[in-house]
Design brief:
mainly beta; seven-stranded mixed beta sheet
């Protein structure tokens, strides 16, 4: 089993920044792909960004140029740096871990979610 624990969400004004973290524990050695999804009220969960152990990345068009995903393989931790935040970025953000190399992670392991609210 793999446990994912997210942190870093909160309330921020439009144009501001937040950094999310997701730490994997348990049988988490060398997780090939980690990613971030988000779900806004009344909407489907959508992929925000993903990264492989080799550093390949994938971003949703809506966040390209504003968000950056990175990972520390030694710590099994993935980060999401979110800049120039917009009200439409408001959602619960979930970390996902997939045991295959893919740029669209759909693994069985999910974090508990962290709320990001962008509002003035």
């Amino acid at each position: 089993q793999v446990q994912l624990v997210e942190s870093g969400g909160g309330l921020v004004q439009p144009g501001g920044s937040l950094r999310l973290s997701c730490a994997a524990s348990g049988r988490s050695s060398s997780i090939p792909t980690m990613g971030w999804y988000r779900q806004a009220p009344g909407k489907q969960r959508e992929l925000v960004a993903a990264i492989t152990t080799g550093g390949s990345t994938n971003y949703a068009d809506s966040v390209k140029g504003r968000f950056t995903i990175s990972r520390d393989n030694a710590k099994n931790t993935v980060y999401l740096q979110m800049n120039s935040l917009k009200p439409e970025d408001t959602a619960v953000y979930y970390c996902n871990a997939d045991r295959v190399i893919t740029l669209v992670p759909k693994g069985d392991y999910w974090g508990q979610g962290t709320q990001v609210t962008v509002s003035s």
